[in-house]
Amino acid sequence: MSDIATTVTLRALAGRPLDDHAVRDMIKATASAIAERQGVDLVIMQTEPDSITVTLRTGRIEAVGFAAELRRLTTNWYAHKYGIDNLWGEVDHEDDDGEQWKTT
């Protein structure tokens, strides 16, 4: 087991989708299932109305992969359940010159 712990947050770009108990519960269940399936120790899981934050006993690359898989699975579920294309939102890249990260 790794001694490294990495925290990642998946945040909705608009709205507060995790205010809905059904949405929040599904996202938490999906996060737990991914961790179990991949054999990753999910140390802490916290939710806010617009985000989920998990601390995993793994490295940074694996944690980013975990977040990407959580986003993919929950977006797919949300689109089928509610008919809305994206749970987490899409970034508008039209005005992005690649330097946006410096201001956040």
- Helical content band: 25-40%
Distance between the termini: 33 Å
CATH architecture: 2-Layer Sandwich
Strand content: 15-25%
* Overall number of strands: 3
Assembly classification = single chain
Write the topology of this structure.
Elements: E1 6-11, H1 21-38, E2 42-48, E3 51-56, H2 60-82
Antiparallel strand pairs: 1-3, 2-3
What does this structure look like?
It is a single chain. The protein has 104 residues and is α+β, with helices and mostly antiparallel strands. The chain has one domain (6-81): Alpha-Beta Plaits (2-Layer Sandwich). The chain has two helices and three strands; from the N terminus they run E-H-E-E-H. Strand 2 and strand 3 form a beta hairpin. Helix 1 crosses helix 2 (60-82). The longest helix has 23 residues, at 60-82. The radius of gyration is 14 Å and the shape is globular. The chain starts with 5 loop residues before the first strand and ends in a 22-residue tail after the last helix.
Short description:
The protein is an alpha+beta fold and 104 residues long. The protein has two helices and three strands.
